[in-house]
Specification:
Elements lengths: L1 E2 L4 E2 L4 E2 L4 E2 L4 E2 L4 E2 L4 E2 L4 E2 L4 E2 L4 E2 L4 E2 L3 E3 L4 E2 L4 E2 L27 E3 L4 E2 L4 E2 L3 E3 L4 E2 L4 E2 L7 E4 L4 E6 L5 E2 L11 E4 L6 E5 L2 E4 L8
Parallel strand pairs: 1-4, 2-5, 3-6, 4-7, 5-8, 6-9, 7-10, 8-11, 9-12, 10-13, 12-15, 13-16, 14-17, 15-18, 16-19, 17-20, 19-21
Antiparallel strand pairs: 21-22, 22-23, 24-25, 25-26
């Protein structure tokens, strides 16, 4: 584990073996970070966040309470997570500042294993980003993203499919296709069956080789 001297790590944070925390990172209490992760400079991670093994988080990322990030996820620079659909700073009469503690309005977000979130994306709450899904840079994600699906835009919409290796499946296809249709990755040779939002691996990643 390597923690830059300018990083702020609050009490109760657990950090796994081989994880690197870069300069001016702030990690709040009760957060768990797995093994061999990279947390980029000036990133803020709120309390109670769970991050799996071998996750890459680039610079200037904001991860709020209620977020779970599974193993092997890539989160590019400037990404912002949210956890409240209807936030207010104060009561309607402006006499009291509302607390920032989690309550019934705090909604979770889960980023499943192997997913990638592009730079400057904004991620809504009460949703799941699927396994090996890919979110294009600058996207605003307002609904769940299925496994292996590529989304982009504001609001983010499906524009294709991604292999677990990161390359695009069905090159030249924009949007979802209805099959079932077999897709082979031109880069690694992996095979999938594609039917709309449903993508299944012919041989799961952990069984290859």
């Amino acid at each position: 584990m390597a923690v830059h001297p300018t990083a702020t790590i609050e009490a109760g944070v657990t950090i796994g073996r081989g994880t690197a925390i870069w300069d001016n990172v702030h990690i709040r209490c009760s957060t768990h970070i797995g093994d061999e992760c990279i947390i980029g400079e000036k990133t803020y991670i709120a309390y109670g966040v769970h991050i799996g093994h071998r996750v890459k988080i680039n610079a200037f990322v904001y991860i709020c309470t209620g977020v779970t990030i599974e193993r092997g996820v890539m989160i590019a620079a400037g990404t912002v997570f949210t956890n409240d659909r209807f936030p207010r700073a104060a009561t309607p009469d402006f006499r009291h500042l509302l607390p920032s503690d989690p309550d019934e309005h705090t909604l979770p977000t889960i980023v499943r294993e192997g997913a990638t979130i592009g730079a400057q994306s904004t991620i809504g709450c009460d949703l799941t980003i699927g396994r090996f899904a890919m979110v294009g840079m600058g996207s605003v994600v307002t609904r769940a993203v299925p496994d292996f699906v590529i989304v982009a835009g504001n609001p983010a919409r499906a524009v294709g499919y991604a292999c677990a290796c990161g390359q695009r499946l069905l090159t030249g296809v924009h949007g979802l296709v209805h099959g079932p249709l077999e897709a082979e990755c031109a880069s690694c040779g992996a095979h999938y069956e594609v039917d709309g939002e449903s993508v299944s691996e012919r041989q799961p990643v952990h069984q290859r080789g």
